[in-house]
Every structure is written in structure tokens, then in C-alpha cells.
């Protein structure tokens, strides 16, 4: 090879190396945190700043608490609700809250103060969802169902936002019994809220499909008992949600991650079955750590990785 050809070849190799080193213009990589079902005790409340610091050190883009920010027997007074709101508002990253049963449904318990659950839900809305933005020191904008769909104007807590190639949405579906009630037929609050939940779920998936987004992440509090649903016997308070969720997932071409709390068993699995009883591989469920084990889930979105969404459990202590 002549010296001139050698120089040309060397330049081509160098140019190709530079091209390989430069990420794609559409490349996207970020992590976010999910946690919930804590603090239930004063000790756990004292440990929360350590969790926030761990998330900050991991440079999460945002964090989502999926509900139950107090024990079911802890008073549902304004001071308790405000305290946790102040914690999220001071976080060094955007933070989002999803209502659980302990902060509104179960507030009618005498030990919790014998509050009216609907009044407490309205209080949560005024504290956590007063503006179309997240909490945190650097909030981001969100779309509230109350603004996007006037037929469901009360539901400020149903949020949606997009980061990179992923659509995120929150649902007010609390644990225990989803405020279904003890009668065979549910109460008016359940019927109205679940109508809003179904519409918000459908709107989110339609938006993701319209934009050709490859993934949807859903946050809610309740464990709806996928195992009973797979066995053909869904629990009455969650049957409506489970059928709507399965329909939405089957009508969408991308991956779906549902993050919830409620039963305090950290797990990652694929529990949703199609109408033939086959596992829907595109659907994953992740349940967060819960009291008495403090921890969080670190979820990483990386468009250049083999798997777009990866989940890493992060207990606060190694022995947990």
C-alpha cells in the first residue's frame, strides 16, 4: 500500500472511531426513583432524609412515592399530611405523590382521627396537586386530568408527563379495598373515581401510541391481586381496573411497567395474563419496599441498552 493510501486509510479509521464514540442524537438515559408504604414510625420518618440523599447521589431525574406515607392508625391531621408534603417539596429533584389508603380511605378509623375520607382526599389535593407541576426544589410540568378532561374535573391527583421515550401516569387506586365498601355494590365515590381512572388510563395509552413511544410507566398504590385475576377470580374492588389495564396493554405495542405498593413485598415479575391465559411478556409489575424495610427502586431508562427499562432494588441498609 502506498504512503498516500495508508494515510487515507488511517484517516478513515479515525473518522469511524469518532462516529462510534458519539452517541446517537436520539439517545436518552436517565434514572428515577420509586418508593412508598413508609414512614410508618418515627424512626422511619427520621430515616427518610437518608433515602432522599441516596436518590440524590444516584442523580435520579425525579422520584415518585406511591402512597401510604403514614401508618393506618396515625392521625390523618393536617400536620401529618403537611409534614410529608414539605419533605417532598424540599427534595433536590422533582417529586410526585400518589395517594394511598392510609391518608384518606382509612382516615375514618377512630385511631386515625375519625375524619371524613372525602374531606381528607380534598385536603390531599389542595396540598399535593394544587398546581400542574410536581413537587421538589426543581419541579417539572405535569398534565392533570382535572385540566385535560373537564368531565373529571375533580381529579387533580391523576397526572401525566413524558420524559424521553417514556410516558408516565399516576392513578388514585388505593390499597385495602379501593374504597369499594362493604356492600355488594360499590359506593358513588368508587364509581365516579373508577370512571375517571379508566378514562385516564385510556387517554395515556392513546397518547403513547399516537407518539409511537416505546414504553408506559404507571404508578398507583394498590396491589390489585394479579394472581387472583389470572385464576379467573379477580377481587371485586379491583376487577374493573384489571380488565381495563389488560385491554389497554393488549391494545398498545410497547412495554408497560406498573409500579405499586400496598403489600410491602418488594418484587419484580410479569403477572398479567392475556385472554388465553398466556403471560404478557411486555408487561412488568414492580412493588416497592415498604415498612419495616426502608428502600427504593432505581429504574433506569436507556435507549441504547438491550433493555429499555431496567429495575434495581436499593435497600437503605445492606442487611435489609
Topology:
Blueprint: H1 3-21, E1 29-35, H2 42-57, E2 63-65, H3 78-89, E3 95-97, H4 117-128, E4 143-144, H5 145-148, E5 159-163, E6 166-170, H6 188-210, E7 215-219, H7 226-230, H8 236-250, E8 255-260, E9 267-269, E10 283-287, E11 295-302, E12 309-315
Parallel strand pairs: 1-2, 2-3, 6-7, 7-8, 8-10
Antiparallel strand pairs: 1-11, 4-5, 5-6, 9-10, 11-12
Protein name: Metallophosphoesterase
Keywords: Signal
Organism: Niveibacterium microcysteis
Describe the structure.
This protein is of the alpha/beta class and 320 residues long. It has one domain: Purple Acid Phosphatase, chain A, domain 2, CATH 3.60.21.10. Helix content is 33%, strand content 18%. It has helices at 3-21, 42-57, 78-89, 117-128, 145-148, 188-210, 226-230, 236-250; strands spanning 29-35, 63-65, 95-97, 143-144, 159-163, 166-170, 215-219, 255-260, 267-269, 283-287, 295-302, 309-315. The strands form two sheets. The protein has a seven-stranded mixed sheet with strand order 4-5-6-7-8-10-9. A hairpin with a 2-residue loop joins β5 and β6 (166-170). α3 (78-89) runs parallel beside α4 and α6 runs parallel beside α8. It is globular. The model is unreliable at 8-25 (pLDDT under 50).
Count of helical stretches:
8
Radius of gyration, whole Å: 22 Å
Helices and strands, in N-to-C order?
Answer: HEHEHEHEHEEHEHHEEEEE
Derived structural class: alpha/beta
| Largest sheet report | 7 strands, mixed
Unreliable runs: 8-25
Number of strands: 12
- CATH architectural category: 4-Layer Sandwich
The total domain count is 1
Signal peptide: 1-27
Keywords: Signal
Protein name: Metallophosphoesterase
InterPro entries: Metallo-depent_PP-like (IPR029052)
